[in-house]
Design brief:
By secondary structure, this protein is an alpha+beta fold. It has helices at residues 51-68, 99-116, and strands at 2-8, 25-32, 36-37, 40-49, 73-79, 81-84, 88-96, 119-126. The strands form two sheets. It has a four-stranded mixed beta sheet with strand order 1-5-7-2, with helices on one face. Strands 3, 4, 6 and 8 form a four-stranded antiparallel beta sheet that branches. Helix 1 (51-68) packs antiparallel against helix 2 (99-116). The protein is globular and about 45 Å long. It starts with a strand and ends with a strand.
Length: 127
């Protein structure tokens, strides 16, 4: 499986997915910053990461998950720094032969990302 990971303070703009004749399904997820955190209105979240380790852990997780849910390619983009309300904090695109594998890998990865990858919300900016 081809894995592409980008952790950056740049605004996430999902790229066009290249045509691949093996791909029958593309599952995408975009997680955006909502206007409240712990019931308080906010203007933004601040994310930090231990970047080398975060990339290594993401790659390991995706490889492990691909053994159970075979896919063709995965692209993960995660923001760090200040991410304003309405902006994307994460975007994931999974390409697979069939939708079941794409959905399963995407859902399992998001569950593991939250618990295993060293990326943290460190602060909120009040609204």
């Amino acid at each position: 499986m081809h894995i592409e990971i980008l952790i950056s303070d740049a605004v996430i703009v999902p790229p066009a997915t290249p045509a691949d004749p093996r791909v029958g399904a593309i599952a995408e997820f975009t997680g955006t910053v909502r206007g409240e955190e712990n019931t308080r209105p906010i203007a933004a979240l601040v994310y930090e990461a231990y970047q080398p380790m975060a990339e290594t852990v993401m790659r390991r997780l995706l490889s492990e998950l691909a053994a159970r849910h075979p896919c063709i390619a995965v692209r993960v983009q995660h923001r760090i720094g200040i991410v304003r309300v309405g902006e994307a904090a994460i975007h994931i695109a999974v390409q697979a032969k069939h939708r079941a594998e794409a959905f399963a890998l995407l859902a399992a990865f998001m569950d593991r990302l939250k618990q295993d990858v060293p990326i943290w919300k460190t602060d909120t900016l009040p609204a």
